[in-house]
Amino acid sequence: MNSAAANQPAATRLRLRITATAESIVRGGHPWLFADSIHELNRAGQLGELAVIFDRKDKFLAVGLFDPDSPIRVRILHAGKPATIDAAWWQARLEQALARRRDLFDAQTTGYRLIHGESDGWPGGVLDRYESTLVLKIYTASWLPRLDEILALFKDTIPLERIVLRLSRNIQAVAEKQFQLRDGQILFGASPEGAVIFSENGVRFEADVVRGQKTGFFLDQRENRREVETLARGRRVLNAFSFSGGFSVYAARGGAKSVTDLDISAHALESAKRNFALNQNFPGVAACRHETVQADTFAWLEKNADQFDLIVLDPPSLAKRATEREGAIRAYERLNSLGIARLARDGILVAGSCSAHVSALEFFDAVRHAALKSGRQFTELKTLQHPPDHPAGFKEAEYLKVIYLQFTT
């Protein structure tokens, strides 16, 4: 992947100098350089070109992808000693990401993350596999000018049938206007006929790779779904914010007596029904009573008096920006208080958060506080965070956390 900037004479490459504080942050391995940390550019930078960052002694510090319109002005690709960012470099970077996952999954799992953004050295981009379909989701417009080169690299390295492009909302307008690219576009191969079916630990799920949330499924909760399966035997299970019923199918396979999917989206609940239908070959799923309820989870938990033996509370992010952090912590405590009130004796609460602006300690403490306020006796079984195909290489990447509590009274 030869970049235009790499082929330019050194005198015309985009050169940046940054503040002393930013130098320390970059040296520490952080992959973002913010606009207000730059105090000198040799010229105006173009979207997607390589920006070479120098320290106060005019020595090479790092190189990254430049975005003139983003608060994150440079996404760091490489720091330390100078390196040539060419096709061989990109090939090696891709192979490193694939090698990290080579021994993680067997043939029973055909849906997982191949590239996890900054933590795999591909800042602002993720690549997920669903069987032979790859879904590339990009969060920074700086990848858009390089898309053809990226696709060629993927096609040459990874066996695939198609590649689907997903775009974060903040870059959809520039993608359409400047590059004629849209969210859900098929970049290679034929359009899928409906959802793509993939396997996870032998369980079959559908992924709406063209229009669904994230890249079509929440692959990051794989380990927690497997954990719920081990806890579900003989239990009445409530899966709140259920989306397409991933936790529920696992609970049923694990021998749950009944499973209730609760979500505000009728579309998500229909997907949950189809996922149950896909797994009728498992005796537990075939025997499990499956119910769907379309409602707001907070309101339903407040009004409904039903008791459950295992409750999964895995809401969408309650803090999409830093200013929402304190309100989100209060909301997590309230939500889990409502859930605890619906738990029967010896019931298990599985509480999750995907809010990067709320730390693991803050979230776990909010759930523990809700448990203490209930006045019930409880035992903390475990906490889990990121699965190995979703590594968190810096603080802002640490979003996923789940805590398990069992109430003995």
Written overview of the protein:
With 409 residues, the chain is of the alpha/beta class. It has 3 domains: 4-79, Archaeosine Trna-guanine Transglycosylase, Chain: A, domain 4; 87-196, 2-Layer Sandwich (Transcription Regulator spoIIAA), CATH 3.30.750; 218-407, Vaccinia Virus protein VP39 (Rossmann fold, 3-Layer(aba) Sandwich), CATH 3.40.50.150. Helices cover 29% and strands 29% of the residues. It has helices at residues 4-7, 20-27, 87-101, 147-157, 172-179, 222-231, 246-253, 266-278, 283-287, 297-303, 325-341, 360-373; strands at 14-18, 32-34, 38-41, 50-54, 60-66, 72-79, 111-116, 125-130, 133-138, 162-167, 186-188, 196-200, 203-207, 236-240, 258-263, 289-294, 308-313, 343-353, 378-384, 401-407. Strands 16-15-14-17-18-20-19 form a 7-stranded mixed beta sheet, with helices on both faces. The longest helix is centred in the C-terminal third of the chain and has 17 residues, at 325-341. The protein starts with a helix and ends with a strand. 42% of the residues are buried.
Shape: globular
Report the average pLDDT across residues.
Answer: 95
Distance between the ends: 61 Å
The residue ranges in which pLDDT falls below 50 over 5 or more consecutive positions are 1-8
- How much helix is in the residues? 25-40%
Mind telling me the CATH class of the largest domain? Alpha Beta
Q: How big is the Rg?
A: 23 Å
CATH homologous superfamily name of the largest domain? Vaccinia Virus protein VP39
The CATH topology of the largest domain corresponds to: Rossmann fold
